[in-house]
Amino acid sequence: MKNYFYLVFAFITLVNCKGQKEEKLLSIEDKNFILNKTFLGVTKKNNKYEIIDRCDGGYPSLKISEKILFYYYPQEGAYHTIKNISKIKDGEYKIVTDGYYYFKNDQPIPENKIWVISRKDDLIWEFLDSDSNKKNIFSDSLNIINKKIAYVKLSCDNNDETEKDITTKTNNYSADGTWKTSCDQGAGSITIEGKNASLVLLYDQIYIDLVEVKRYGFEKGIAYKLKELPEDLGSIGTDLNWKEYLNDEPIAYVKKIDDNTVNFYWYGFYNKKTKKREFKDNSFYQETGMKDIILKKCNE
Questions:
Q1: CA–CA separation, 102 vs 64, rounded Å?
Q2: Quick check: 115 and 69 in contact, CB under 8 A?
Q3: Ramachandran class of 142: left when φ > 0, alpha when ψ lies in -120 to 50, beta otherwise
Q4: What angle (nearest 5°) sits at the alpha carbon of residue 235, between those of residues 232 and 238?
Q5: Position 1 pLDDT exceeds 60
Q6: Where is 189: in which H helix or E strand?
Q7: Is 207 in contact with 201 (CB distance < 8 Å)?
Q8: Cα angle 79, 297, 211; round to 5
Q9: pLDDT at residue 271 above 70?
Q10: Among 240-244, 254-258, 291-295, whose mean pLDDT is lowest?
């Protein structure tokens, strides 16, 4: 009889579990996937995606941290305080917020809202406000930097002009210092001083010097290219096509989160002959296992 009750209990539990949509807490991989990125609103025109910068208010933007969902639409927006974030399935996340602050009104408004952000492909994310069932499409800001999505600025005289350089917005920021995944144990590092940087790309193997190519003020980002042919190389580095890598294409990107934290992105060397990226490995990835890397400022 005792075994019978155990079997009944197990069956009921199994049925209940099957009836629920599985949601999981965010892993470190999930957090690196969606948090602390800058998503920009895009429109589709002639089967191509563009980011339209309106003269009267800019463009929609979205940023998610563990505590705040920042949502801005031209001339309006709010900070939403996050109650919890869960993973519905790969590339799809549910965000529950329990209050928000309007930009022009600092008073919190208690309200449980549910948002769903999902990745549609390599370029596009969909952002759904489940209350209104309104969908908006966004793209990672890095896709502008990589020239995968066009940036168009609308002038107030109604003439469209392509803005090739969007670095004119608040460029008075600095990422100077030495940055590592761990100040105590990190082997890889990047040291920035003004427009120049030195990168321990692969410890005891590849050390390179970088120079700033462009700044992206909307997210305090700096893109770097290879400055010169490296002199300090190990056995791995001697086999690479360095003469082909010396060009104006960005190979690394640093995005400042705050005074002590940055995101680091390594694209790989750009081979100007084959027009392909090569050697995408780096010490930071080996230390964390993450493609989207967070570095801390260290006292050297």
A1: 16
A2: yes
A3: alpha
A4: 65
A5: no
A6: strand 189-193
A7: yes
A8: 100
A9: yes
A10: 291-295
